[in-house]
Every structure is written in structure tokens, then in C-alpha cells.
Amino acid sequence: MTTDGGGWNMCYTTDDAVRLKTEYTYNSQKPYGKTGYRGDCRYIPFKEVLYVDQATGKTAWFTRINSGTIVTASTNYDVPGSTYGQWNAHGVATTSYKYQMLICDKSSASDFYPGYFTSGYTQCYKKCNNWCGDSTTPYFRTDGHIPSGSYDGVAFNTNGHKPLGKKLMSVGVR
């Protein structure tokens, strides 16, 4: 991926939910940009996360403000957004907010697992199972995949604290 100078490790492409802990094997029948693409990003240290709307080619990426601390997904599943602090927006994401990032892959069928999840910070750090009632800031997330359907669909630069339609989105880190 060549956005902002390249060097991105693309983790997945989906229009549905993703299970980061178990869906990481590359399949040549599902190349990058097609639903079902998976890359193994579990052990890649990163300070930036990228979201790509595959229908429009629009990109948004987020850079950790505290750049001295590196994140690795394998050791940070389901921890609160405060763990990573705040992030700056680039690309199509509005710079009116500071952002926060979660890496969600809960094991219970009643919990959320929207994969890499970035949204605006509103004086409340989100958790994978508590989104602080944030119905105003932009979200970047895959399907929340809970039985009630409350957070179905994919959010790309729109508030995702509600059900949305399917949208093909890719996510990468560097």
C-alpha cells in the first residue's frame, strides 16, 4: 500500500466482521482488496493504522500522538482506548477531533469484535464493550457482530454507534 509514502502491512479486507485472533491466514483466492483478504498483523509493531474504503479509494490514517510507544495487536486485544492514548487524523478523517483506537476481538458471542476500531475522543475513552454513547464522532470499524444487530455494518468516516450497511473496507498498520 503506497498511501503516505507506503510501508503499510495490510491486515484484512471485509464488508462484515473480522476475528483478528483467528483469521490471519493469507488465501491466494482472496487477494488484497477483495472480501476475505487476511494478512497476519498480530505481531507487527505499529504507530499508525490505515483504513481504506475500497469502493471510493478514499483513505484515512491515524498516527499515535505518543510516538515513543509501539502497539502490537497480539498483546493488546480488548484493552481500553486509554491504553494507546490519543491519535491524530490524516486523509479524509476530520482533524476536528483527536481520536482513540481499540483492537477488539472478544471471545464471547455477546461481545463486540469490530477489529481495529478508531473513533473520535469525547472526554471518554472507549472500551470494546462500551463506546461511551458516542453518537457524534466519525468511526472507522468493521461489523460489531453482536446478536442484536445493534452495530452491524461497516463504518468509514461516519458515526458507527448504530447499524449501518455493508461496505468493503481494508485495514493496515505500520
Give a concise summary.
0% of the residues lie in helices and 27% in strands.
Describe the fold and architecture.
The protein has 174 residues and is an all-beta fold. Helices cover 0% and strands 27% of the residues. The strands form two sheets. A five-stranded antiparallel β-sheet has the order 1-9-2-3-4, with no helix packed on it. It has a four-stranded antiparallel β-sheet with strand order 5-6-7-8, with no helix packed on it. Strand 2 and strand 3 form a beta hairpin. The chain is globular, with a radius of gyration of 14 Å. The model has no long low-confidence stretch (mean pLDDT 88).
Query: What is the chain-wise order of helices and strands?
Result: EEEEEEEEE
Could you say which structural class the secondary elements and strand pairing correspond to? mainly beta
- Unreliable stretches, pLDDT < 50, 5 or more residues? none
**Gyration radius, rounded:** 14 Å
Helix count equals: 0
